[in-house]
Design goal:
The protein is α/β, with parallel strands linked by helices. It has helices spanning 21-28, 51-56, 73-77, 79-83, 88-101, 106-109, 119-131, 149-166, 177-183, 202-207, 212-218, 222-225, 249-259, 304-312, 334-357, and strands at residues 2-5, 10-14, 38-41, 44-45, 58-62, 137-141, 169-174, 186-191, 195-200, 242-244, 263-267, 273-278, 297-299, 318-322, 328-333, 372-375.
């Protein structure tokens, strides 16, 4: 196996059971020592470091969080900082920062024990522990495999948000190609015996699978799977008219009629949407803080696949988009998403034709070469990846 992982990217290792993806991951932090070949981080062979010292510089997140049951949340997160000799004040500050980053209120959760947490909360703490010492490289072994589908989607979205802030080099093992497409900047597809079938971007894997194995592994519906590669942040959404709880309904309807608007978004006192309603259907004197029907909202980080799914459940053929704290961002319509998909497809086709004309031998990693893997902490400017 021979591959190189650029700094600041998320690379997903995916393949059938027994293909060696977890074994490959564990060689990076020397939980398993390679029998031959070289693995380097920032150009330095990992064999030159003591195994314990190496692991303290590499984050490690596994399925279920694997928290120490006799330790509080704070103590679990502080394990590696403690081994590195951080003082108490610095460690406490870091613990609170990380709990806030993964969506857990430090005041409520720092002193709890793992048994007092849900599965999703335990996994969040596991992610925080992996980030505790601010390592440049983080390894994840099926981190979201032990939670329900709804929680898994939320954790995936949170991971994407955290990665946008921190830009760590993340290597993540998964058996789920859809998860790999959603989270990865690049995907390494392995077959039995650790053979690299394709190492490429999600877009290229969907648009141009390297062989029949990759095509079968990705499965049918590659065009639909590509919806998981774009997010609402990438789409120019509409800023639909809004009204506030307590506004005069007569004024709202008069303004809507004058401007030719049919639907309005009702916001509460904190700017969060509570209803998306036809203005003419409002009744009473004042707009109330009450949902008249199930309100479909999606986070701005959601994929277009998630957005379209929400639209199918909406009576408006559109969906309200919210920010990270639930605040109103706008309304995404089916037509806006279809326009974005068409533009993206045309751009991908143009890039693919250009790549075919200038293809290099390094565009796809070659299997069965010497076992040399390089994980760079610092990307070299201008270097061809």
């Amino acid at each position: 196996m021979s591959l190189r992982i650029p700094a600041g990217e998320t690379v997903m290792f995916v393949g059938p059971s027994g293909c060696g993806k977890t074994t490959s991951l564990k060689m990076i932090n020397r939980l398993i020592d390679p029998t031959s070949g070289t693995i380097t981080i920032d150009g330095k062979p990992i064999s030159e470091s003591k195994a314990d010292d190496l692991r303290r510089r590499i984050g490690y997140v596994i399925q279920g969080g694997s928290l120490f049951p006799h330790m509080t949340v704070a103590d679990n997160i502080a394990v590696v900082p403690g081994l590195l000799g951080w003082d108490k004040a610095k460690t406490t500050k870091r613990v609170d920062e990380l709990l806030d980053m993964v969506g857990l209120d430090p005041e409520r959760y720092r002193d709890r024990f793992p048994r007092e947490l849900s599965g999703g909360q335990q996994q969040r703490v596991g992610v925080a522990r992996g980030l505790a010492a601010d390592p440049p490289v983080i390894l994840m072994d099926e981190p979201f495999g032990a939670v329900d589908p709804i929680t898994r989607t939320r954790l995936q979205d949170e991971m994407l948000s955290i990665q946008r802030q921190l830009r760590k080099t993340i290597i993540c093992v998964t058996h789920d190609i859809d998860e790999a497409l959603k989270l990865g900047d690049r995907i390494l597809i392995l077959s039995e015996g650790g053979k690299i079938e394709q190492y490429d971007t999600p877009e290229n894997i969907l648009a141009a699978p390297a062989n029949e194995f990759v095509e079968d592994f990705v499965g049918a519906g590659s065009a639909l799977k590509s919806l998981a590669l774009s997010r609402l942040d990438d789409v120019e959404i509409a800023d639909a008219p809004t009204v506030r709880v307590g506004d005069s309904i007569v004024d709202v309807q008069r303004n809507a009629t004058a401007s030719g608007v049919r639907n309005v978004v009702v916001l509460d006192e904190r700017g969060r949407p509570v209803d998306f309603v036809t203005a003419a259907k409002l009744r009473g004197e004042r707009v109330e803080n009450r949902r008249r029907e199930a309100l479909q909202t999606v986070d701005h980080r959601a994929t277009l696949n998630d957005a379209l799914d929400a639209m199918l459940s909406s009576s408006h053929g559109a969906v309200v988009v919210t920010g990270g704290r639930g605040e109103y961002r706008g309304v995404a319509s089916f037509q806006q998403i279809m326009t974005h998909i068409q533009d993206t497809h045309e751009a991908a086709e143009s890039r693919r034709h250009g790549a075919d004309a200038e293809a290099t031998p390094d565009s796809v990693a070659v299997a069965n070469t010497s076992s040399h893997t390089d994980f760079r902490e610092q990307a070299e400017e201008g270097e061809e990846q």
